Amino acid sequence: MGKKRVPDVYRAPFPLYSIKVDPKTGLVITAGGGGASKTGIRNAVHFLDLQLVGEHQYSASLLHCHDTDTRATMNMAVGDGVIAAGQDGTCSLMRFQLCTQTDGSKAAAKEGGNSVLQGSARRRAGKGDKGGQDGAAASGDLSNIKNETTRISVTGLAEVQSDLNPQDPLQKVVRFSPDLSLLLTGGTDGHIRVWEFPSLKKKFDFKAHEGEIEDLDMSPGKKHLVTVGRDFACSVWSGNQLAMSLKWHETLPQMAEKTYRYMACRFGKVEDQKEALRCYTVQIPHKRDRRPPPCYLTKWDGKNFLPMLTAPCGTEVISSLAVRVFSYLAGAVLLWPHGCGSHLPPTVPLSRIYLNHAKAEGAWSLLHMACQHQRSSVQHTNFPVLNYNSLLSR
């Protein structure tokens, strides 16, 4: 018997590459597209309203579609009403705002050349939608109807050049610092670039890795920056100075040095321990075998960066990592197509996840994006908690 198919909460008309949830408004923001090629597939950022319509059942309504012209958004960060979107070798900053229209009109408005899909939130499944593909939105449940006066305006703020690879510039990752005072990017040229936000005055530009940067994260207080790259390195930086390099394989003496590479990194606080800090890294096999070896998750002390524990986390190649405020981990992974392993082109990430709800009754409630073959959808499901009790303990 095959795996039970997870129902789609929302189906996009283009490939999805990134998903975020705005903590202030609760809006689900997805982005992607067909890129610069003239295939007829548009590039856009979608703003969705997610509503609980039953036990473990969600409905999503499209509130606004912001067209991004010829550039697909491959990664993004959201902070205080601002989206930092990675589009080719550029980081584009956009401000979004919930607006209300007093006359109740259903006419579309124009904001800075971008159409505002006012009233589209009242639309349920379209004529071309198939049963089950849009989840609760296709079920006719009226709870996904929003006030037709609600609309979203998107205004372009600025752009910065975030990658200078002479062959194919591509921003791979973008994050705001925890206090939203810095904007950090990493790309295929191996450079970390840091701008003061919102002035966008460049603060640092330094070579962090040989080759592509996979992920980065900044600690609370901005004391340390952790970066991981395809060069097998995980580096800890103080400003633009290298503080140390992490060696996860030394926690497993039988592990050869370059059989695994780092894929993701995140800081996490510890509940009931105000001063404690953890750093988590994900390691994936550099090469995939017919009998794939496991991926690993390592917990480090977030202040002195001594390794605390390493645990295997399944043979599916991990593509994303999310950590809640108090170090509850969602190492969920939806995953690469069978046989592709870690050798997919870096411009085709298959999934991103966002931890949507707290742990409850042995399951994480996750909102994730699946983009596999011709499927581009937002789904909601309850994943079983990975058995990392010792790893997640204090």
TrEMBL record:
Q: Where is this region: Disordered?
A: 106-143
Keywords for the protein's UniProt record, in alphabetical order: Endoplasmic reticulum, ER-Golgi transport, Membrane, Protein transport, Repeat, Transmembrane, Transmembrane helix, Transport, WD repeat
Q: What would you give as a GO molecular function for this chain, any one?
A: guanyl-nucleotide exchange factor activity
- Fetch the SMART domains from UniProt: WD40
Q: Which SUPFAM superfamilies match?
A: WD40 repeat-like
For this protein, the record's Pfam families field holds: WD40
Please give a single GO biological process term from the UniProt record.
Answer: endoplasmic reticulum to Golgi vesicle-mediated transport
In the bilayer, the protein is annotated as: Single-pass membrane protein
For this UniProt entry, what's an example GO CC term? endoplasmic reticulum membrane
- Keyword Membrane (UniProt): yes
PANTHER family cross-referenced by the UniProt entry: PROLACTIN REGULATORY ELEMENT BINDING PROTEIN, PROLACTIN REGULATORY ELEMENT-BINDING PROTEIN
Descriptive protein name: Prolactin regulatory element binding
Q: Which organism is it from?
A: Scophthalmus maximus (Turbot)
Q: Which gene encodes it?
A: preb
